[in-house]
Specification:
- The complex is a heterodimer.
- By secondary structure, chain A is of the alpha+beta class.
- Chain A has two domains: about 1-245, Rossmann fold, CATH 3.40.50; about 255-375, Beta Barrel (OB fold (Dihydrolipoamide Acetyltransferase, E2P)).
- Helix content of chain A is about 25%, strand content about 35%.
- A six-stranded mixed sheet of chain A has the order 6-7-8-3-9-10, with helices on both faces. A five-stranded mixed barrel of chain A has the order 11-12-13-20-14.
- By secondary structure, chain B is mainly α.
- Chain B has a domain at about 60-235 and about 265-275: MetI-like fold.
- Helix content of chain B is about 70%, strand content about 0%.
- Chain B is built from twelve helices and two strands.
- Chain B starts with 18 loop residues before the first helix and ends in a 13-residue tail after the last helix.
- In chain B, about 35% of the residues are buried.
- Classes of the chains: A alpha+beta, B mainly alpha.
- The interface of A and B includes residues 92, 119, 159, 166 and 167 of A.
């Protein structure tokens, strides 16, 4: 176990690979495939020990970015630096980064032990040292009993843990993970997420984690990079991204399911007044607002839903919307309700109390939970 | 493994009738002639016995054809596989791979007789190759590459290499590219990726390619007659069978020789496939994906 403790110095035999570094710097990293730009000018400085998530829909360039850092894809433009050393022209085998592949890429002809020990053997470590470190790594991912099996006989979750063990056993300076949980079922995904978090806490290795799942990114990362169509939309802490998305695209990605295009009535510093066909909303401006229209972004769980058979607004209610429940989905802890306003606008809201389909409801939302973005 | 291999079909299933044409073809075109030849090989003038086989193995002029044939076909097969592997490896993701594949398919479509005729003039004493060698002063007298061992050997390479290349190329491209990439991120140089990842995963493909190439080379006939010295160094086993059948009109003897030929091929193939079982032979992808 000692090998995998946070303060371990790198083994002398791998000095050229896993040096201690201060910063991993991506400067205008660009990659195009036959004219189509997959990743455009990604600038990112990662501090040693940081957990970075690259988040975005499929085809946004997040895997391209990861492969560029790993050395599996040459850059079209830009550079990658480990402190003062330029590494983007180095072949992957000399970078000393550990990578966990989306389909795990376990060597099917080698046992679990030989898979995990592969990187150590490549570093020409003694048999004894390899055995010791493989034991420690298999302990860490709780797979000691499976060492002599071929990976094809393991379950998806076990294979995934072997892939993680294989990447971290060489004590890489940077760990790269390409959607490592996307092939697992929902329950296992949650367990492995915790596992990855625990390993990062224990080893404090710089990690770049690619995902399309905002929950994964929010729960794991110190900082999140949101990408779309190859461009960087926002870089920030999970809290920043969640409460203050920089634009509508990020907001959509952060779970703001209600994006309403409304009339812009007036702006008073940060406060914004918007008008819909049958309701008015007060919110906060998240960008420079101009023109006659603006978008309001609201998360389903920020609505307060009450049954309102009278069909009239309660006195004194602000930011209130009247509507009728259409579709009610039971989610265990709460209900997800689709609500149609009288003008036909469809809203999504979460509520703890059961709402019957067809019931007339009243929605309220605090001003600070209504984010206004420009319509441009 | 076979816990649920029982098919869920109720027996008279009419789709099984689709097998009939295939079975008929196998029976009439392969199994019947094979069994006919097999039985015929035990007939001689004295009635059914092993006479033809004892004659084959006690007459050096006949039995030595086995070694003559092996001496040509085994090196040719090994050279073909040995060259096809690196060429397929280098070209597997090359831009010109499709063009190269197209060029290499041509010898397969031409057939052995045409290749033999072409090589006869090309490699002959007045052929382009010898003219070039003389012109460049690499050689002072024409190099004898026809009507001997080398003529047959070269024709087996020309016709066998593309076949081995295409087979190995398809095996190579079937290997999940994430596997060598993973090896690279773990510190494996290109050479070690080849040795530790590609090669072990290619063993089943190499074994199959070897078997198919060998069977083809072992049954060499037209080029052994046209390009070789069919009376001596390249008197391969198929020539012996031909002579027994069409010069001596001894069909039982010819059938016996054909059976010996099949036996030798079967033996080599069995050896190759058994040695394959010593290695890993499962899927060549790295996860449940």
């Amino acid at each position: 176990m000692t090998e995998l403790q946070p303060t371990t110095q790198p083994h002398p035999a791998e000095g050229r690979r896993s040096q201690i570094f201060q910063q991993l710097r991506l400067e205008k990293v660009t990659r195009s495939f036959g004219g189509t730009i997959a990743l455009s000018g990604l600038d990112l400085t990662i501090q040693s020990g940081e957990f970075i998530a690259l988040l975005g829909p499929s085809g946004c360039g997040k895997s391209t970015a990861l492969n560029c850092v790993a050395g599996l894809l040459p850059l079209t433009d830009g550079s990658i630096w480990l402190d003062q050393q330029r590494i983007d022209l180095m072949p992957p085998e000399r970078r000393g980064f550990g990578m966990v592949f989306q389909n795990y890429a376990l060597f099917p002809h080698l046992t679990v032990r030989r898979n995990v020990g592969f990187g150590l053997v490549m570093r020409r470590m003694s048999k004894k040292e390899v055995r010791r470190r493989v034991d420690a790594a298999l302990d860490l991912v709780q797979l000691k009993a499976f060492g002599d099996q071929l990976p094809g006989r393991l379950s998806g979750g076990q294979q995934q843990r072997v892939a993680i063990a294989r990447a971290i056993v060489v004590e890489p300076s940077v760990i790269l993970m390409d959607e490592p949980l996307s092939n697992l079922d929902a329950k296992l995904r949650l367990e492995m997420r915790t596992e990855i978090k625990r390993i990062h806490r224990d080893l404090q290795r710089t990690t770049i984690y690619v995902t399309h799942d905002q929950d994964e990114a929010l729960s794991l990362a110190d900082r999140i990079v949101v990408l779309n169509e190859g461009r960087t939309l926002q870089i920030g802490s999970p809290e920043e991204l969640y409460t203050r998305p920089a634009n509508l695209q990020v907001a959509r990605f952060m779970g703001y399911r209600n994006i309403l295009e409304l009339d812009l009535e007036r702006v008073e510093q940060q406060r914004v007044f918007l008008a819909g066909p049958d309701f008015r909303l007060e919110g906060i401006a998240c960008a420079e607002l101009a023109g006659r229209r603006a978008f309001a972004a609201i998360r389903p769980d920020d609505f307060l839903v009450t049954i309102n058979e009278a069909g009239s607004r309660p006195t004194g209610a602000r930011n209130s919307i009247l509507g009728q429940a259409e579709i009610v989905e039971y989610c265990g802890r709460d209900y997800l309700v689709d609500i149609a306003t009288s003008s036909g606008l469809l809203l999504h809201a979460r509520t703890q109390r059961r709402v019957e389909p067809g019931a007339r409801v009243h929605l309220e939302v605090p001003e600070e939970r209504v984010l206004a973005f420009s319509a441009a | 493994m076979s816990t649920s291999s029982r098919p869920a079909i109720k027996l008279p299933d009419r789709t099984l009738l689709l097998l009939v044409p295939g079975i008929v073809i196998v029976l009439t075109l392969f199994l019947y002639p094979f069994l006919f030849g097999f039985i015929l090989s035990f007939l001689s003038h004295q009635g059914p016995n092993l006479g033809n086989y004892t004659k084959f193995f006690s007459t050096p002029f006949l039995s030595e054809t086995i070694w003559t044939t092996l001496w040509i076909s085994l090196p040719a097969t090994l050279i073909n596989i040995g060259f096809a592997l690196p060429v397929a490896f280098v070209t597997r993701r090359h831009r010109f791979q499709r063009a190269l594949t197209a060029i290499l398919v041509i010898p397969i479509t031409l057939g052995t007789v045409l290749i033999a005729e072409g090589l006869l003039t090309y490699l002959g004493p007045q052929g382009w190759l010898n003219r070039l060698l003389l012109m460049l002063h690499i050689s002072t007298s024409p190099v004898h590459l026809t009507h001997n061992y080398w003529g047959v050997f070269l024709s087996l390479v020309v016709s066998g290499f593309p076949f081995a290349y295409l087979l190995l190329l398809s095996y190579l491209t079937g290997i999940d590219p994430a596997l060598p990439q993973a090896a690279a991120t773990l510190g494996a140089s290109p050479w070690r990726r080849f040795i530790h990842i590609y090669l072990p995963l290619l063993i089943p493909g190499l074994a199959i390619a070897f078997c198919l190439s060998f069977v083809q080379a072992f049954s060499v006939f037209p080029s052994a007659v046209l390009l070789g010295a069919p009376a001596g160094p390249t008197r391969v086993i198929s020539i012996a069978a031909y002579q027994a059948a069409f010069e001596d009109y001894d069909y039982p003897m010819a059938s016996a020789i054909a059976m010996v030929m099949a036996g030798v091929q079967l033996l080599v193939v069995a050896l190759a496939l058994t040695s394959r079982n010593l290695f890993y032979r499962g899927p060549t992808t790295g996860g449940k994906g």
